[in-house]
Design goal:
The complex is a heterodimer of chains A (261) and B (786). With 261 residues, chain A is α+β, with helices and mostly antiparallel strands. Chain A has 10 helices and 12 strands. Helices cover 28% and strands 22% of the residues of chain B. Classes of the chains: A alpha+beta (261), B alpha+beta (786). The interface between A and B is medium-sized, with 15 and 24 residues.
């Protein structure tokens, strides 16, 4: 990697200040950024680690009953401590491998918005609120395409708030090499309707499957999805599966998520 | 019956203590005072004209010692190829030059263009980014059949086309084979791909070149399976360094699987640059570099046809294979699709007529060479797939069809030029049926179906040829090397032994199993024996380890040397015991006079050899050290029968292996635990090939699977608990240990079992699927079902 300066602020305010520097880059758990640096594909002048900010750590319950996760909380902590939202804890428990879960953070994952990552499906599927140093962003407004989000330059995710559904489940069909989601479907049933969010499949990143949501809101059972399908035309087509195959998996995994919820 | 030591005991692997506690000595652990680091600037273009390499700016960068380009190697030889194939017209193969650093053209992504030697690796990398390379891109040659079409771009402009050779085997059998197909009652044909693989040993390649100006001596530390071969190829053919001025050391090596047999440019570069810079030069491959510079494996496209008579006897077999050589000929590449593949096409069957055609093709891809099994997995896969397909077409039991056609009398001369000395294919099949509980399969299938899964059972046999030999034969076949093995046994005065073997251990456990053999022969404790390997300054000229040859050839050399030791020790003992040499017996580490209670301990004899006060100096020399070179009279022929049971998720195409059973015949066995481990590793790699691993290029010659993000290695949870047996033993008839070798069997025998099982599962659901190309990834299986 190229040389860079390293800062580890202890408050959000200090982190924001540090990120004002030219070519400064926030560092969460580094599970994407560090390999990118090692391949010399990025050359930030300063890395600003968010791991030392106490207020961005941990899991707690919000006054409205939502599960609130600090932006710098690693996946293993979410898996262990987000028991109030079992499907979310279970999703975190199956991201990557133990080393990844002990380093990677929810804020880092959502800020990166990898089209095959798990957390974007959980956040969008739960209608989560992305809290930053500057504002609150609804998940529906936050994800704006592959590796693209509503975050502004220098803006960091301090917390993510998940309303707890009646039922939810995440089904991940893994890509055999990376074990990222080839297709991952997050289904959550709330009093006001069902949300279905799909990762891994689309060239536009995580998305909601409106047709399935409508069918499941009327009848929350796998059979309600019979006959529903997505087009593979705009889906990712690569070494591990065509768009058509991914579209097929979306339907299969959605049914499985409903059955398992 | 478990034994506590010697041949047949499951002695614990002594080398694992240092490997597992972090005190091994791998090449990257070697750091020489004052060493510089090299970074290779590699082509990111598959095919292009190299117009210029401008190092002006880079040369002035901090820490740069010197930057080398192809021009610096003008007086240096080409990286040699170690095997010349003669084509079906009697002409030698087309053999291109293989420069250390690219000159004129770049021919694959990853080919080194320039090398920056600097104080630190990061400085070398920084400077490499400042090198200005001008490449005019040319159309990439990727698809093998397109490469042979008229008008294709040529990988090598000085060759007549992209065809390395067109090999027919046995050419004299072709007409009779074709006639047998005309007369056949049934013909089964199958087109298939043997997927390209990347070996991916845990330790990437490393080379450290060192040079002693005072003595003009070169040393290369390298991750090699055969340091003497590297010394000979690099010294004699590339750099012109006489062998007595060149030492090659391959210390602890973390896995080879074939890809560390070959002589690579980086080794020659570091050796050359160490003298040019007058300081040690070190290169450690990154994993990314390994994907695009380690020789790849397999990559065959084959059409195979099997002819049967009305009674389902195999009457003829013919194949047409396109074998990818990549951009250059790696050290043993030409031999893999020919002599290591064509000669195995008889398999376990008494098919009387066989004709094999292989077209070896140059493409703009990484060179392809031997990978665990090397040619034999390709042969086994085709044959066992077509036999399985034939059984399905004929509606007969696939095991019965195999048994009906088994070779049962030995020795057996195949129509493809080899003679199997011994084997019992019914015995391993009997053992497989016993272990496999095939009668219970229907119930297991019903259980799977109740869960919504399809279940399939696949069975196959395999035979392989190990212990590649004899030298005079392989010489006739085009090998530019001998294929004997060497051993020196040095007995110390106090009775301990050092065995210097030309074999090389890179994970196989030779230090344990070789010591067991010698301990058994003398009747002493294994701890008294040290096995030394991997250093040309210590070990007699040896040919190294590949092709499951170490125990069969290297072990035999060690036995011969130890026999010489024992013979001499008996002479000394007879003197000490004042008895006739013919009456001396060696048992449990003591020499005794037959029929008496007179004896002398091993240590007393060895001490006498080095302190020869009471010693027959007029008859024998002092000392106790012997060397043997062993050149086998034939290959060895391990064989076996494998079974795989899979579950297929019909909704997703995902295959999971529920059971895998291996019944092998390796002849006599030195260490059953190590043999089991070798089979486990082979099965993991064979199943990896069948289900997961896929080295893929796009049409521009870009490597799509250039990291573990896209290249799927088998992981523990991809594999079942293996059920492995090697109690069927027909000892090899022509080596002193009766051993056959076990290193590659698992990788050879397992891919067809997996594919046969998946086809069985899909057909159980009424799918008209007769073949799916490996890897049987979920998307491919699902697509096959649509």
């Amino acid at each position: 990697m190229y040389n860079f300066d390293f800062e580890k602020p202890e408050s959000v305010a200090d982190a924001i200040a540090a990120l004002q520097g030219e070519e400064a880059q926030a560092l969460g758990g580094g599970q994407t950024l560090i390999p990118t640096l090692k391949q010399r594909l990025a050359s930030p002048s300063t890395l600003v680690s968010l791991k030392g900010i106490a207020e961005m750590q941990g899991v707690c319950m919000g006054d409205d009953g939502s599960v609130c996760i600090g932006g710098a909380t690693n996946h293993a902590t979410v898996a262990a401590e987000a028991g109030a939202y079992p499907a979310l804890a279970d999703t975190a428990a199956h991201i990557g491998d133990p080393a990844v879960r002990n380093r990677g953070t929810i804020g880092g994952s959502l800020a990166n918005n990898d089209p095959s990552a798990c957390y974007p499906a959980a956040a969008l599927g739960s209608g989560a609120t992305i809290v930053t140093n500057a504002r609150q962003i609804a998940a529906d407004d936050y994800f704006q395409g592959m590796f693209t989000t509503a975050l502004d330059e220098g803006e960091i995710i301090t917390e993510v708030r998940f309303p707890v559904p009646e039922k939810a489940n995440y089904q991940k069909f893994v890509q055999p090499a990376s074990r990222f989601a080839l297709v991952g479907v997050y289904v959550a049933k709330y009093a006001d309707g069902v949300r279905v969010a799909i990762t891994g499949a689309s060239n536009d990143g995580v998305f909601r499957w409106a047709e399935a949501e409508a069918a499941l809101s009327a009848n929350f059972s796998a059979s309600a999805l019979d006959g529903l399908s997505l087009s593979g035309d705009d889906m990712i087509s690569d070494l591990h599966g065509t768009g058509e195959y991914r579209a097929h998996l979306c339907a299969v995994m959605t049914k499985r998520a409903v059955a398992a919820a | 019956m478990p034994k506590d030591g010697g041949i047949g005991a499951s002695s614990k692997r002594r080398e694992d203590v240092r490997f597992l506690t972090g005190v091994g000595n791998y090449t990257d652990d070697i750091n020489i005072h004052g060493q510089a680091h090299v970074f290779f600037l590699r082509s990111d273009i598959a095919h292009g004209t190299l117009n210029s390499v401008d190092t002006t700016a880079a040369s002035g960068m901090p820490g740069v010692v010197r930057i080398f380009t192809g021009d610096d190697f003008a007086g240096v030889g080409s990286i040699p190829c170690g095997w010349q194939i003669t084509d079906k017209h009697g002409e030698p193969m087309q053999e291109p030059a293989h420069p250390v650093l690219a000159t004129g053209k770049v021919r694959h992504v990853g080919e080194p263009i320039a090398a920056v030697v600097a104080e630190t690796l990061e400085q070398a990398r920084d400077a490499a980014e400042a090198i200005n390379v001008d490449i005019a891109e040319l159309p990439a040659v990727v698809d093998m059949k397109a490469a042979l079409a008229d008008g294709s771009a040529k990988v090598h402009d000085d060759l007549s086309n992209n065809l390395c050779y067109d090999w027919g085997f046995v050419e004299e059998n072709k007409a009779a084979t074709d006639a047998a197909f005309e007369a056949a009652a049934h013909v089964t044909s199958l087109e298939l791909v043997n997927n390209r693989l990347v070996a991916n040993p845990m330790e990437p390649r490393v080379a450290v070149g060192d040079y002693a100006r005072g003595t003009d001596e070169h040393t290369l530390y390298t991750t090699s399976q055969n340091p003497h071969v590297i010394r000979l190829l690099m010294g004699a053919f590339v750099l012109g360094i006489p062998e007595h001025k060149l030492r090659v050391v391959a210390p602890d090596v973390g896995g080879g699987f074939g890809t560390k047999i070959f002589h690579y440019q980086e080794e020659a570069f570091c050796t050359f640059a160490a003298k040019a810079c007058n300081r040690a030069v070190k290169w450690t491959s990154s994993r990314t570099e390994a994907f695009m510079s380690d020789a790849h494996g397999r990559d065959h496209v084959t059409k195979i046809e099997l002819a049967l008579d009305a009674d389902n006897n195999f009457t003829a077999l013919r194949t047409e294979t396109h074998a990818n050589m990549g951009a250059y000929l790696s050290t043993f590449a030409p031999s893999v699709p020919t002599w290591l593949h064509g000669t195995l096409m008889a398999g376990n069957y008494k098919t009387p007529l066989i004709y094999v055609n292989v077209k070896a093709v140059f493409t703009n891809t990484v060179p392809v060479d031997a990978y665990r099994g090397a040619g034999r997995p390709e042969a086994t896969f085709q044959l066992e797939r077509v036999v399985d397909k034939a059984a399905r077409e004929l509606g007969v039991d696939p095991i019965a069809l195999r048994r009906q056609n088994f070779i049962t009398e030995f020795p057996y001369a195949t129509p493809v030029a080899v003679e199997y000395d011994t084997g019992d294919y019914n015995a391993t099949m009997d053992k497989l049926e016993e272990m496999g509980d095939f009668a219970g399969f229907a119930a297991r299938r019903a259980e799977s179906e109740a869960k919504g899964k399809l279940r399939g059972l696949g069975v196959n046999c395999y035979i392989e040829a190990c212990g590649i030999a004899p030298s005079n034969l392989v010489g006739q076949l085009g090998a530019r090397a001998g294929l004997y093995e060497s051993a020196t046994v040095r007995v110390n005065a106090t009775g301990g032994l050092v065995v210097m073997t030309g074999s090389h251990s890179h994970g196989q456990g030779h230090e344990t199993s070789f010591a067991q053999v010698v301990a058994d022969m003398i009747g002493i404790d294994e701890s008294m024996i040290e096995i030394v390997h991997g250093d040309t300054s210590k070990v007699p000229m040896g040919m190294g380890t590949y092709g499951s040859r170490s125990i069969a050839v290297g072990g035999s050399a060690m036995v011969r040397a130890t026999e010489k030791i024992i013979n001499k020790a008996k002479k000394i003992a007879s003197h000490l015991l004042e008895a006739s040499e013919t009456d001396i017996e060696l048992k449990d580490g003591a020499f005794s006079v037959a029929g008496t209670d007179k004896s002398v301990a091993w240590g007393d004899v060895t001490l006498a050899a080095y302190v020869p006060h009471n010693y027959p100096l007029e008859d024998i020399e002092p000392g106790l050290e012997e060397t043997a070179f062993y050149d086998p009279s034939n290959f060895t022929y391990p064989s076996g029968a494998y079974a795989c049971e899979v579950e297929v998720d019909p909704d997703t195409g995902k295959v999971s292996i529920e059971r895998f059973i291996a019944a092998d015949d390796f002849g006599n066995i030195i260490n059953p635990m190590i043999v089991t481990g070798q089979v486990h590793g082979g099965l993991a790699q064979g199943i990896g090939q069948a289900l997961l691993e896929n080295c893929a290029y796009d049409e521009n010659g870009q490597l799509l699977s250039a990291s573990y993000m896209d290249y799927a290695m088998p992981r523990a949870d991809d594999l079942p608990m293996f059920d492995v047996d090697h109690s069927c033993q027909t000892p090899c008839t022509h080596n002193p240990l009766g051993v056959k070798g076990c290193g590659e069997a698992g990788a050879i025998g397992s891919p067809p079992a997996v594919v046969n099982a998946v086809v069985d599962a899909l057909q159980s659901a009424g799918k008209d699927v007769t073949h799916v190309d490996m890897p049987l990834s979920p998307d491919r299986v699902w697509a096959a079902m649509q």
